[in-house]
Design brief:
Blueprint (H helix, E strand, L loop, with lengths): L7 E6 L15 H6 L2 H7 L3 E7 L19 H17 L4 E8 L3 H13 L3 E6 L20 H6 L15 E4 L13 E3 L1 H7 L1 H10 L6 E7 L21 H12 L4 E7 L10 H14 L11
Parallel strand pairs: 1-2, 1-3, 3-8, 4-5, 4-7, 5-6, 7-8
Helix pairs in contact: 2-9, 3-4, 6-7, 7-8, 8-9
């Protein structure tokens, strides 16, 4: 049974990987729809609406010129995402759920969040990596690997406003990608396992001011390669599906979450869409309303 306090989730695909290193998987959101994302969320008692895909120009540049691959394509995509989700953030109880994105999407969603809530924003960055690589004039890298640097540092690449590194918590990482020390809060994979995923999530949430609105970034490469080989850059070591379910359930129970984004799924590595189905089940289990049947009918 729904109540007025139940949030409505607005599913939006982000159909272009202009922030990624490799092309070839530009319509990954469709795999989540084919895996019956909406139906499984509805079966879990979740109010959900498919809003289609964010409109992103098809003529964005593709190049390997330093320092940011395909620039200014990522910036154009971020602006498209920010403009599309902005209206939902003005409506209490309406939460954008972005699917099919690369990790650089967080720059666009953070932009929308800061425009809506000013400095009262916190990013929970659940990811196998710390995507904080600084741009280098002699090296071309994807914007995805620079996402947290771009959000927190004044630069010509993003209008901002920048977010204090203390307002970002990276959870579950096992590779820092040689990112510089930026003052981010951090719960690495080993610490998540020591505490237990639920307790790690609770500690991360308790450290966030009550006045904050939370952006949850979930990169599926936080899962182990054994459990999620369809990640764009899979990690040998990572969370199990069971651990991820516990972590997400604790985070998504927090009413301060205002955006959810699921990043770095590679549909070309999942031809039967079985791993897309696994991700959908993770989301359904974490968002399930009390008293609802599990999506498998039990």
């Amino acid at each position: 049974m729904q109540t007025r306090d139940d949030p409505t989730y607005h599913v939006l695909g982000v159909p272009l990987r202009t922030g990624s290193l490799y092309p070839g998987s530009e319509n990954d959101a469709q795999a989540f729809r084919d895996a019956r994302l909406l139906q499984r969320l509805e079966a879990a008692g979740v109010q959900v609406i498919d809003e289609g895909d964010v409109a992103i120009p098809s003529y964005l540049p593709h190049h390997n010129i330093p320092p940011i691959k395909n620039w200014p394509g990522p910036r154009i995509a971020w602006d498209c995402v920010s403009e599309r989700i902005g209206p939902y953030l003005k409506q209490p109880g309406h939460i954008p759920l972005l699917i099919g994105a690369d990790c650089s999407v967080v720059v666009g969603t953070a932009q929308a969040m800061t425009q809506a809530y000013g400095e009262y924003v916190h990013i929970l960055y659940v990811d196998g990596d710390i995507d904080g690589v600084a741009p280098q004039p002699g090296r071309c890298m994807s914007a995805a690997g620079m996402a947290l640097w771009l959000i927190t540092q004044a630069s010509p690449f993003w209008a901002g406003p920048t977010l204090s590194p203390s307002r970002i918590t990276v959870v579950g990482w096992s590779d820092d990608l040689h990112s510089p020390e930026m003052g981010l809060r951090s719960l690495p994979l080993a610490e998540v396992r020591r505490l237990g995923p639920g307790e790690a999530a609770r500690q991360a949430l308790q450290a966030i001011p009550d006045s904050s609105s939370i952006l949850l970034h979930f990169d599926i490469d936080v899962l182990s390669k054994q459990d999620m080989p369809a990640a764009y850059f899979p990690h040998t070591d990572g969370l199990s599906i069971t651990e991820a379910r516990e972590l997400l359930a604790a985070i998504l129970a927090d009413p301060r979450v205002r955006i959810i984004e699921v990043a770095e799924y590679a549909s070309l590595r999942d031809l039967d869409q079985s791993y897309a189905s696994t991700i959908v089940e993770l989301l359904a289990a974490a968002l399930k309303r009390p008293g609802q049947l599990n999506t498998n009918g039990s």
